[in-house]
Amino acid sequence: MDLSYLAAGMDLPDPAPDLQIKGLTADSRKVQPGYLFAAFKGASTDGTQFAADSAAAGAVAILCASDVVESVRQAVSNARVQVLGSQEPRQVFAKMAARFYGAQPDTIVAVTGTAGKTSVAHFVRQIFQAAGHPAASLGTLGTIRPDGSSYGGLTTPDPVALQKELSELQHEGVDHAALEASSHGLDQYRLDGVRLTAAAFTNLGRDHMDYHPTIEDYLQAKLRLFSELLPASGTVVVDPGEKYADRVLQIAGQRGVRVLTVGETGKDLKLTGLRPEGGGQLLTIETERGEYKVILPLIGRFQVSNAMIAAGLSIAAGIGVGTVMRALENLKGAPGRLELAGKTGSGGMVFVDYAHKPDALDKALAALKPFARGHLSVVIGAGGDRDPGKRPLMGEAAARHADLVIVTDDNPRSEDPASIRKAVVGGAPGALEIGDRYEAIAEGVRRLHSGDILCVAGKGHETGQIVGDTVIPFSDHEAVTRAISQLGDT
Ligand SMILES: CC(=O)N[C@H]1[C@@H](OP(=O)(O)OP(=O)(O)OC[C@H]2O[C@@H](n3ccc(=O)[nH]c3=O)[C@H](O)[C@@H]2O)O[C@H](CO)[C@@H](O)[C@@H]1O[C@H](C)C(=O)N[C@@H](C)C(=O)N[C@H](CCC(=O)O)C(=O)O
Ligand SMILES: Nc1ncnc2c1ncn2[C@@H]1O[C@H](COP(=O)(O)OP(=O)(O)OP(=O)(O)O)[C@@H](O)[C@H]1O
Ligand SMILES: N[C@H](CCC[C@H](N)C(=O)O)C(=O)O
Ligand SMILES: [Mg+2]
């Protein structure tokens, strides 16, 4: 593909004519002859130091920041490589990737927020499917498509992987997709170039304070979705009752973008009634098409919020209100999000949940509490190499709701697991500390009596535990099943 086509209209000097680009990558190790290499300064290393390697591997063009063009040129001075400098090289790279791969599903919606992204994307995909559209969701669970799923690693993939995936989906006939927009992804311009129909905000709480210096910086990253990525013809979906929703609405107002509001104070999908109904919840929702009574087959107030946002996104994407309301009655929760993982012979229940931040833990335990006729207990840990400030706050959230808190290891990564546990216990004095995650879960299971509930939090769908650089196979679901089978009372 001609480089001048990929670069047209962007903040770049005119590239040499007729330079053909065979592929593009930001990783020098993936460069092949004819590729464009994007040399970025990253969080842990500086990609420009691999410029010479990329040229040796056959790169014909290098994209980099304007202020390093000269040093990159010198590094590749012996090779015939075109060096292009930009003020925003990551944004230019993402847009080039979009042009290179070209095709995307016709209708794409995106969701951002601290919690609920995976659940919302999972719900929107199910609603699209119920409306008869071949649909996919992309995010923490990887890509889930009509004929299977594939795991990617990041919530929002890098632009090349993302655009390649979107183009493959379109060629497979998938015309509707829902994506999770992580704050890292937005901050690093991974999603620029995705053609969005609608974008939603779920909520904002403490997260990623290791990456974003302040809450305002974190919010600003999320707001890019509404201020820069959603086209003026798109629709913003938000619950005005959520903290910081006013900032999203302000941007929509300034841009004159259509807004669809949901929730108790929402106008378009107004939640006027909510009560438990069997194993689910009965919602009364007022819409422009009249009032609907919907039985949502999920527990937890937060799932109501997620379902309302998902319904709003689906309507913004053109699905009829009646179809959306009917689809809510058949929603399945995302794997590992307040998922019933087992019952003991004595009548205790064990749930697996992905809460790994204070607000999420607070909401997840509050959701389970009404179902615990006896005690509520929780197994928690916190990930290593991630915001240390959240650790005591997670301990506090756990201690606020649970009768018994068992503190264990999550993914310690490069950190000393004992010091992570100590920080969590700091917020939950009196907690039981058991480092080995299986033993912690087994202890929680052994202590269950009739009517008790145990929540195993933090790892949800994950299938490995990251210790140092090694990923040890570990699944909370399997641990729960094994611990229950060891009881010998089933
Ligand atoms: C902090 C962060 O977000 N890092 C991501 C970022 O890396 P970076 O640009 O900082 O990369 P770096 O390692 O400093 O290297 C700089 C550049 O040199 C290049 N390089 C490096 C080595 C080499 O030999 N050759 C080479 O060209 C790298 O490809 C990179 O372009 O861009 C990389 C490529 O897209 C990502 O793989 C990497 O994700 C790391 C592994 C990560 O753990 N990210 C997490 C924190 C993340 O993004 N999480 C979010 C949010 C999750 C949530 O929902 O909470 C997500 O979307 O998953
Ligand atoms: N709307 C919500 N408000 C508060 N907590 C929520 C909400 N939705 C989900 N949670 C909690 O957060 C956990 C993760 O939910 P989900 O995977 O849907 O969010 P996410 O935004 O994709 O998270 P991540 O950024 O880690 O991928 C759930 O297991 C639950 O404990
Ligand atoms: N996308 C999140 C997932 C965290 C999951 C939790 N189990 C942990 O390891 O902290 C992250 O990488 O920060
Ligand atoms: Mg997610």
TrEMBL record:
InterPro entries assigned to the protein according to its UniProt record, in alphabetical order: Mur-like_cat_sf (IPR036565), Mur_ligase_C (IPR004101), Mur_ligase_C_dom_sf (IPR036615), Mur_ligase_cen (IPR013221), Mur_ligase_N (IPR000713), MurE/MurF_N (IPR035911), UDP-N-AcMur-Glu-dNH2Pim_ligase (IPR005761)
Subcellular location: Cytoplasm
Domain Mur ligase C-terminal span(s) in chain numbering: 336-460
SUPFAM superfamilies recorded: MurD-like peptide ligases, catalytic domain (SSF53623), MurD-like peptide ligases, peptide-binding domain (SSF53244), MurE/MurF N-terminal domain (SSF63418)
Keyword Cytoplasm: yes
Enzyme Commission number, as recorded: 6.3.2.13
Residues where ATP binds: G113, T114, A115, G116, K117, T118, S119
Protein's UniProt keywords contain Amino-acid biosynthesis: no
Residue positions, PTM N6-carboxylysine: K222
Signal peptide bounds: none
Domain Mur ligase central residues, every copy: 111-313
Binding site residues for UDP-N-acetyl-alpha-D-muramoyl-L-alanyl-D-glutamate: S28, T155, T156, S182, Q188, R190
Transmembrane intervals: none
Motif position, Meso-diaminopimelate recognition motif: 410-413
Record keywords: ATP-binding, Cell cycle, Cell division, Cell shape, Cell wall biogenesis/degradation, Cytoplasm, Ligase, Magnesium, Nucleotide-binding, Peptidoglycan synthesis
Residues engaged in binding meso-2,6-diaminopimelate: R386, D410, N411, P412, R413, G458, E462
Reactions catalysed: UDP-N-acetyl-alpha-D-muramoyl-L-alanyl-D-glutamate + meso-2,6-diaminopimelate + ATP = UDP-N-acetyl-alpha-D-muramoyl-L-alanyl-gamma-D-glutamyl-meso-2,6-diaminopimelate + ADP + phosphate + H(+)
Cofactor(s) for this UniProt protein: Mg(2+)
Record PANTHER family: MUR LIGASE FAMILY MEMBER, UDP-N-ACETYLMURAMOYL-L-ALANYL-D-GLUTAMATE--2,6-DIAMINOPIMELATE LIGASE MURE HOMOLOG, CHLOROPLASTIC
Family: Belongs to the MurCDEF family. MurE subfamily.
NCBIfam families with a match to the protein in the record: murE (TIGR01085), PRK00139.1-2 (NF001124), PRK00139.1-4 (NF001126)
Function: Catalyzes the addition of meso-diaminopimelic acid to the nucleotide precursor UDP-N-acetylmuramoyl-L-alanyl-D-glutamate (UMAG) in the biosynthesis of bacterial cell-wall peptidoglycan.
Official protein name in the record: UDP-N-acetylmuramoyl-L-alanyl-D-glutamate--2,6-diaminopimelate ligase
Organism: Roseibium denhamense
Gene: murE
